[in-house]
Design goal:
The structure is a single chain. This protein has about 400 residues and is an alpha+beta fold. Strands 9-6-1-2-3-10 form a 6-stranded mixed beta sheet, with helices on both faces. The longest helix has 30 residues.
Length: about 400
């Protein structure tokens, strides 16, 4: 039996020595690609044992009729990863757009069209203002912040707060400018009067155009809030820690029944409102309207600082509650731009100024039927304001005109 087995095995092919000679004698171009020196056809020679593909040198071969294993295409995994990230990116963009749409829709922009059409009739060149073009800069967004009173019947009262928030995206600076409400200016179509009278006679549109006409700087956007709503905003933020003088504490205590002491006090919304409206107290901020506007800028800076310290979830919650209390004419692209500023708020510095500037006005004059007013040198103040908002180059151009 052993001879028969050996005989059949040896008939499977020539001896190893002969196979090596045969392989060596075959021209390279005529050798089969799958031919090997031992004479085994690696694709066709199969010894089936227990239904397994085997080869005596442990090299796996394929049964006759089977195709060799296909190589995986390169880059398949990379493409799957790319498309996965692409889909995730689309989802995030969609969520961001939805978030922006929800936030923007909560603002009160119902008067935007009316204000735009009304302002056109108020554009004029005041006789006391320098004949300069209205200055603007694509990197700077000017927004007039108005704190207003409502009359008992619900009609508009006077604008007790007129602060220009100028956001310089290039230098990453927020500049706050308080306009004294008793400033004696030329109000379009109504003549000379106090600045805060413009709001009574023509609302937001007339107030914005009065400031732009006289100070020769671009003021196209505004945000207005009723003082009662302002208190609610502070409460939603959890109050503010405000450094205060003894005189300011005494004034608020007498009005609100609080027990504040000199130093830093944690104020709620109502107390912050009283603090921003103090006029009869003299302290480091000054007296009358000078001290009052300085406190208003101080509170706005504290609000910004509070927003800087919050995480995105907390700040989003406050904005969601706060936005319906604001009336504005900001467009969607401008709101998106401000959202980018808010996200980068920690990198912004804050500067502030009062207009008219010190040593450029007289507050001793009284006008019959109007009361005491602040008369000012408009050309000096225009120069100072343009320097503050846009740099020295803008005023040098203006002086040459």
């Amino acid at each position: 039996m052993e001879n028969r087995y050996n005989s059949s095995f040896h008939h499977a092919g020539p001896s190893r020595a002969n196979r090596d000679l045969q392989f060596a004698a075959t021209p390279p171009k005529k050798r089969r690609q799958n031919y090997s020196p031992d004479g085994v056809d690696r694709y066709n020679y199969v010894e089936d044992r227990d239904n397994r593909d085997i080869y005596s040198n442990s090299t796996v071969t394929r049964r006759s009729g089977h195709q060799p294993p296909q190589k995986k295409k390169k880059g398949g995994a990379g493409k799957r990863i790319f498309w996965t990230f692409f889909v995730i990116l689309l989802v995030l963009v969609g969520l961001g757009a939805l978030y922006f749409h929800v936030m923007a829709s909560r603002l009160n922009r119902s008067n935007s069209a009316r204000i735009a059409s009304t302002r056109a009739k108020y554009i004029e060149q005041p006789s006391a203002a320098p004949a300069w073009d209205v200055e603007s800069d694509g990197n700077v967004i000017n927004i007039l912040l108005l704190g207003v009173d409502k009359n008992v019947d619900g009609s508009d009262g006077r604008s007790d707060t007129n602060i220009l928030a100028s956001i310089d995206q290039k230098s990453k600076t927020i500049r706050l400018v308080s306009f004294l409400r008793d400033s004696y200016l030329e109000i379009p179509t109504f003549g000379m009067n106090k600045l805060n009278a413009a709001y009574v006679k023509g609302g937001v549109a007339l107030t914005m155009q009065t400031l732009e006409n006289n100070y020769r700087v671009n003021i196209e956007r505004y945000m207005s809030v009723d003082f009662k709503k302002f208190a609610a905003v502070i409460d939603k933020m959890g109050g503010l820690d405000v450094p205060m003088s003894a005189a300011a504490c005494s004034e608020i205590n007498s009005r609100s029944g609080s027990k504040l002491k000199a130093g830093t006090n944690h104020l709620n919304g109502e107390e912050c409102l009283w603090y921003t409206r103090i006029r009869d107290t003299t302290d480091s901020f000054g007296h009358d309207d000078y001290g009052r506007t300085a406190r208003q800028r101080q509170v706005i800076q504290l609000i910004i600082s509070k927003m800087k310290s919050l995480n995105p979830v907390e700040s989003s919650k406050i904005l969601y509650d706060y936005l319906p209390l604001i009336e504005t004419n900001l467009t969607d692209p401008e709101i998106a731009c401000l959202a980018g500023v808010a996200a980068d708020l920690k990198d912004y510095k804050i500067e502030s100024k009062q207009m008219p500037a010190p040593n450029t006005f007289d507050d001793q004059k009284s006008i019959k039927g109007i009361g005491r007013v602040i008369t000012l040198d408009l050309k000096k103040n225009c120069t100072i304001l343009r320097n503050f908002l846009y740099g020295d180059s803008s005023s040098s151009v203006a002086k040459s005109n």
